[in-house]
């Protein structure tokens, strides 16, 4: 690193921060560059911020320059110790900010073909520069300077995310690690999470670095799961025996909350107290998966649950200052009409609750750690993959997740924020309740947070509807629900509709009727599949969109082209049903009457057409 003339910092605080950052910063095969990046960010983060050069920039205060712009003590390369560069339309003189380090290296990466990288640092491959880019993206968390990660990765001259493993050895190793996961981790869930991340498959190394340190707490064995299927996705959870929170699987202590009382209830919500009385006071809503045995079972009478489980949930509610609980296993009316009405507005119970308790055995057995791993555990849990829980997450104002209490030093049985549950002197369970926003998710951009923690947090926030605006946008609805699973296929469309329109849903609608309701009120719509979630995946960033009219017609302006003979020969129907194949082949038989609509043609041809499609 002598060519950078970087001063070696011996400040104890800086060294401690450097050690902390080394645990979260991305790996990089170019060790010297990583060491340089860690020192830059460690010294910057411990420095006192200096005022921006107001004399040189009288408009700085008005422009509200980012507080990350200036720092008093940064180890920097002397050739770039002071530089002028444009920032928000104004040329500014920057003195030792980390922005300069990132700016310099970004320009360096953009000039790879013009530079000789053999100069006393050894030959470096594209694999090395992938690590450099990942480090720069991590450094950018301290600034507002570096662009989107996908744009940054263009500097390693890889055209497509799916080509990355062909060039990057570290990605290849990480993907191999996915294929050889322990059987208690589901490969389908992991791949769904990776593809939902902002960085796509480039996020795999960072995710795997955390996953490899996590204990396997899922009691279900996923040895037969593949990247495309999970053997538990379609399992009928109503046949699962109910969970015993007392630790005695053969215990037969049950209680009943009479569902007939709910048929005539006038309360805004039907929550039960520990004394099995309905209450209109503060209540806790429970979000869980029936596959764990926390739901109703066809083997038990409606409203009947294990006493130990009921006592556990009500004790958590009381501990958090609530009078009652809303738990679907005991809070659904017995009358079929009332039951259907309750289903259509069930998510409103989560909106009205003081908070929602997330209960998943995989998480309840996961020992809490303050290192971002609980966030990854949540995203890979069965709870996060289910359809109804996605709606419950979306609807909830405040969410708390149950984790196993960590072993605590100094002789304490549980940490200060933990608690012990014991039913009738039987087995003790030690837990902690952690707030989703305050404790689990990464709080914005930070160099002290691992890239995986930030990526996964953004995925969870997007499903929650707090990362990319309102989920009534079609592509965001599909993002939230595309890979969700329910015991009954029709439920996925009901959930999607309720996410789009929280006011409720008419009972008895078919899947095509629900899709139509989501898009339009009436009219032809042969351009759309019967199930909304079967629409092709779309990308963000289009300048224009097609509009669905109240009559179900598709209108708008799109790029278009006619088919050549060569292109026609390459086309084949995506669907396999004879009716679909015949319909497509009938149109392709007259290619001069067919127009292909595709945004990608715009740059090549410049042709556009006013589109009107009424079926």
Describe it for me?
Residues 283-358 form the Heterokaryon incompatibility domain. This is Heterokaryon incompatibility domain-containing protein. This protein is an alpha+beta fold. It folds into three domains: 2-157, no CATH class; 237-467, no CATH class; 542-613, no CATH class. The strands form four sheets. The chain has an eight-stranded mixed sheet with strand order 5-4-8-6-9-10-12-11. Strands 13, 14, 15 and 16 form a four-stranded antiparallel sheet that branches. Strands 1-2 form a two-stranded antiparallel sheet. Helix 1 (12-24) crosses helix 2. The radius of gyration is 28 Å and the shape is globular. Residues 48-97, 110-124, 155-160 and 601-615 have low confidence and may be disordered.
